[in-house]
């Protein structure tokens, strides 16, 4: 079968390959495994700085777009479940939700392998899921249970997954940037042609350590891709109030940059693919993902004191990443309305089951408070409030 | 303010007044108008007063404009305008740096670091710039108008980065002051003193008490002197010293101890640097026992371990190094569990200890005494050998007193021992010298065994001697 490539504009309903149209409807429906390449053009063009922008025509397939939908729906439901768990005090501490930004996590995964490294900030639940993390591990970690991905010792801000090269969530804003460039440094030594995606936000873009890391990465040609997740608010401060130059993709100055519509999973995929090739050949590149978060900064922030509800619902109506993919699936006849609704129901059940399972996991033993400080036993002692009751050697 | 008090007094003088609340003392116009406030409101009041009384004072930091994440800066932007109370971008190093600059021009900069856990990017500015500005310019310039405020301390759900108590790091920096209030009334007075003090001050606010602690706070402008400790509970058996939130816990402990017949004297240090030595010494002379308590304890952050990171740094005075080439920062790092601190005393030690440090799977900070880079010459084995970390070595055996040191000062100590021996011909004062090598984690057994034998211990670090008996 010839590889049929058709480019579709958003409003037209061109059927894919003619051979598909000839098939009986029962077979046509089984497209979730169809990897026939489709090319779709991004709605918003890329803006570039010191480099040639990649083409707007993105190569994808029905299977991939469907997987986008399912993965994003799963991420969305997870964040909403986390919201209600936090409100019912099963999750304590801090909880920074990613809903609205799912396209970034799935688009990036589609462009890279599990051997490329990703490191991000505290808004890491969906990135973890994208790296192949299990829902039950995520919920367990959120609730501080043993089954959690960091054994219950990290919490919401510190999800890690070693086998997928996910170097985690970090609490201190911007601190992960030099770390990420360090990962790229190690990758360059290994010569295995892998890259590191270092994610940070528009708030962190004003941290001095970003510029220090950019300089060194550019000087040594490191395969580092710095991704600014610009959701337009650094906690409660809008970008125009905190940055002289809100064109974050240009802030690298001598480092090339690309501005991407972060709510379009396919655009994100294209940009990340381009960035990986660029980084392996030419050194660091900055990607600015124009995205948006529906929730406030964290669960303690209602998210409405510094932006209007109209703004939030406006973005939800016009730019929601899941709705976008849904429209794509429907217009390309890859799935029906009902199939998508069923998929969402399945995802919802998946999430509910995971929550129930996570709730059953026990909390870590109290002795875990004192482990994993040092690798070898150094005899450093620590005491509880009553020295006679609790005296432990740190390991 | 006076007219307000006047109106109040007139109200009080009227007998049988409908206002039955006992909020104000009845002594005519000398009365202190007080109000029941929590910690963040007291701090807010102090900031209002500070900005009101000095037109060249400014409050800035992350999100202070709308009132701040703990409501400490409520109403300031509305009252004093966006030119004096404003938000900054997210960069602590920049915030403090700018504060120093503003203060250097004679203004009062009251800078907020959103959580003490985020103060580390600004640490360099505080230690190397703010603390030394007056000294290095020969008193031409200073940044005394700088006050850095930060909420600190555990609350239970803060996790790794909203619970830290970093006051210990700052206590090793001559040139700044470190102040921690224990209650709303103290906070208002101490903050006003800190803002008006002609030295840069780091003011830590116990976040646990922001809402929890409620006290009658005088409404007028008052200051509580810095570097004056307060004995908040008299006792005779043991002296307890603390600050900030844990005094609440300590007070409860004192009550419990009393039931067992132990009379505790509780001292609130208030200013940690420079601290009120006289009060504490007088108290210890009385009771004979001292217990110092602070929250920071073990920072339990055992997440993604950086395996095998070794940081080498030349340290120590050389005579001509001046401010920035003579510092001995090993003390800072000794408060950070999770890393090791190692200091060699000689070439042979250095090679072995450095190889051990590099191969040790924990992160190690390795300080090299730069004075000895060329000065110290020794026979060093050429092969690959390692000297174990966390094992102190007795380099001079004797019985009367144990001296503990590391790095460069061991040379000085050895000379001192020889001098002492020569001088005391009748009474032999023989000293044992122990090279600690690893400051963290340190070899307690060797030191303890030695002190058991000798009975006296003297610890010498490069900056100043500390005598411990």
Automatic annotation (TrEMBL), chain A:
UniProt entry tagged with the keyword Oxidoreductase: yes
Annotated ranges, domain Dehydrogenase E1 component: 70-366
EC assignment: 1.2.4.1
Subunit structure: Tetramer of 2 alpha and 2 beta subunits.
Reactions performed catalytically: N(6)-[(R)-lipoyl]-L-lysyl-[protein] + pyruvate + H(+) = N(6)-[(R)-S(8)-acetyldihydrolipoyl]-L-lysyl-[protein] + CO2
Natural source organism: Brassica cretica
Cofactor(s), names only, from the UniProt record: thiamine diphosphate
Function noted in UniProt: The pyruvate dehydrogenase complex catalyzes the overall conversion of pyruvate to acetyl-CoA and CO(2). It contains multiple copies of three enzymatic components: pyruvate dehydrogenase (E1), dihydrolipoamide acetyltransferase (E2) and lipoamide dehydrogenase (E3).
InterPro entries: DH_E1, PDH_E1_Alpha_Subunit, Pyrv_DH_E1_asu_subgrp-y, THDP-binding
Descriptive protein name: Pyruvate dehydrogenase E1 component subunit alpha
Entry keywords, A to Z: Oxidoreductase, Pyruvate, Thiamine pyrophosphate
Automatic annotation (TrEMBL), chain B:
Keyword Oxidoreductase: yes
Cofactor(s) named in the record: thiamine diphosphate
Coiled coil: none
MF terms in GO: branched-chain 2-oxo acid dehydrogenase activity
Every Transketolase-like pyrimidine-binding domain range: 37-212
EC number: 1.2.4.4
Substrates-to-products reaction catalysed: N(6)-[(R)-lipoyl]-L-lysyl-[protein] + 3-methyl-2-oxobutanoate + H(+) = N(6)-[(R)-S(8)-2-methylpropanoyldihydrolipoyl]-L-lysyl-[protein] + CO2
InterPro entries tied to this protein: THDP-binding, Transketo_C/PFOR_II, Transketolase-like_Pyr-bd, Transketolase_C
Alphabetical GO biological process terms: branched-chain amino acid catabolic process; response to nutrient
Keywords tagged on the record: Oxidoreductase
Descriptive protein name: 3-methyl-2-oxobutanoate dehydrogenase (2-methylpropanoyl-transferring)
């Amino acid at each position: 079968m010839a590889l049929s490539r058709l480019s579709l504009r958003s409003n037209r309903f061109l059927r894919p390959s003619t051979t598909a149209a000839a098939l009986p409807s029962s077979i046509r429906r089984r497209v979730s495994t169809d990897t026939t390449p489709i090319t779709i053009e991004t709605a918003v063009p890329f803006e570039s700085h010191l480099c040639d922008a990649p083409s707007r025509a993105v190569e994808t397939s029905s299977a991939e777009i469907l997987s986008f939908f399912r993965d994003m729906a799963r991420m969305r439901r997870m964040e909403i479940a986390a919201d209600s768990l936090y409100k019912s005090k099963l999750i304590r501490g801090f909880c920074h939700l990613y809903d609205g930004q799912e396209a970034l996590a799935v688009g990036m995964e589609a462009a890279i392998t599990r051997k490329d490294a990703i490191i991000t900030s505290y808004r890491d639940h969906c990135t973890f899921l994208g790296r192949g993390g299990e829902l039950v591990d995520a919920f367990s970690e959120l609730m501080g249970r043993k089954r959690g991905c960091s054994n219950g010792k990290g919490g919401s801000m510190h999800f890690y997954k070693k086998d997928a090269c996910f170097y985690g969530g970090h609490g201190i804003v911007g601190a992960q940037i030099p770390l990420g460039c360090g990962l790229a440094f190690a990758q360059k030594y290994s010569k295995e042609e892998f890259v590191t995606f270092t994610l940070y936000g528009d708030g962190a873009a004003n941290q001095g350590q970003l510029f220090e890391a950019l300089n060194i990465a550019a000087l040594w040609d490191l395969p580092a891709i710095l991704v600014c997740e610009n959701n337009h608010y650094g906690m409660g401060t809008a970008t125009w109030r905190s940055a002289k130059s809100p064109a974050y993709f240009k802030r690298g100055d001598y480092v090339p940059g690309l501005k991407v519509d972060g709510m379009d999973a396919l655009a994100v995929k294209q940009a990340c693919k381009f960035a990986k090739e660029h980084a392996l050949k030419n050194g660091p590149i900055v990607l600015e993902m124009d995205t948006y978060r529906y929730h406030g900064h964290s669960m303690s922030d209602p998210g409405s004191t510094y932006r209007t509800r109209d703004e939030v619902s406006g973005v939800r109506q016009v730019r929601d990443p899941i709705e976008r993919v849904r429209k794509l699936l429907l217009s390309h006849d890859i799935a029906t309305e009902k199939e998508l609704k069923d998929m969402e129901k399945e995802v919802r059940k998946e999430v509910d089951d995971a929550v129930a399972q996570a709730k059953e996991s026990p909390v870590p033993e109290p002795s875990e408070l004192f482990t994993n400080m040092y690798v070898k036993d150094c005899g450093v002692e620590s005491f509880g409030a009553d020295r006679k009751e609790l005296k432990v050697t740190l390991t | 303010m006076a007219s307000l008090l006047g109106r109040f007094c007139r109200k009080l003088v009227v007998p049988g007044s409908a206002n039955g609340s006992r909020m104000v003392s009845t002594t005519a116009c000398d009365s202190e108008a007080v109000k029941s406030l929590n910690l963040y409101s007291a701090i807010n009041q102090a900031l209002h007063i500070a900005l009101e009384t000095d037109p060249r004072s400014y409050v800035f930091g992350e999100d202070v404009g709308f009132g701040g994440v703990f409501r400490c800066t409520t109403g300031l932007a509305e009252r004093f305008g966006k030119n004096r109370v404003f938000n900054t971008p997210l960069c602590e190093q920049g915030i403090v740096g700018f504060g120093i600059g503003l203060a250097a021009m004679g203004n009062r900069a009251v800078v907020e670091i959103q959580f003490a856990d985020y103060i580390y990017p600004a640490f360099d500015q505080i230690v190397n710039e703010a603390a030394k500005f007056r000294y290095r310019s020969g008193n031409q310039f200073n940044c005394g108008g700088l006050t850095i405020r930060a909420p600190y301390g555990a609350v239970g759900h803060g996790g790794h980065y909203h619970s830290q108590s970093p006051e210990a790091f700052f206590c090793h920096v001559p040139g700044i002051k470190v102040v921690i209030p224990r209650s709303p009334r103290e906070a208002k007075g101490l903050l006003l003193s800190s803002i008006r003090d002609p030295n840069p001050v780091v003011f830590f606010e116990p976040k646990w008490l922001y809402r929890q602690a409620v006290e009658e706070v005088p409404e007028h402008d008052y200051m509580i002197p810095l570097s004056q400790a307060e004995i908040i509970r008299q006792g005779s058996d043991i002296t307890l010293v603390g600050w900030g939130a844990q005094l609440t816990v300590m007070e409860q402990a004192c009550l419990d101890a009393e039931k067992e017949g132990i009379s505790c004297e509780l001292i609130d240090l208030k200013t940690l640097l420079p601290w009120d030595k006289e009060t504490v010494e007088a108290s210890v002379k009385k009771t004979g026992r001292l217990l110092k308590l602070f929250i920071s304890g073990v920072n339990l952050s055992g997440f993604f371990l950086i395996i095998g990171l070794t940081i080498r740094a030349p340290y120590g005075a050389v005579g001509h190094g001046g401010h920035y080439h003579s510092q001995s920062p090993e003390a800072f790092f000794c408060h950070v569990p999770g890393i090791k601190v190692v200091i060699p005393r000689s070439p042979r030690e250095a090679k072995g200890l450095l190889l051990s440090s590099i191969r040790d799977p924990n992160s190690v900070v390795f300080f090299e005494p730069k004075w000895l880079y060329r000065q110290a010459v020794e026979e060093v084995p050429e092969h690959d050998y390692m000297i174990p970390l966390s094992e102190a070595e007795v380099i001079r055996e004797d019985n009367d007193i144990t001296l503990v040191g590391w790095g460069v000062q061991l040379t000085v100590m050895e000379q001192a021992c020889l001098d002492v021996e020569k001088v005391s011909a009748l009474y032999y004062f023989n000293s044992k010298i122990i090279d600690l090598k690893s400051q963290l984690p340190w070899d307690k057994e060797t030191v303890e065994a030695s002190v058991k034998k000798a009975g006296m211990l003297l610890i010498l670090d490069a900056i100043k001697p500390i005598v411990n008996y």
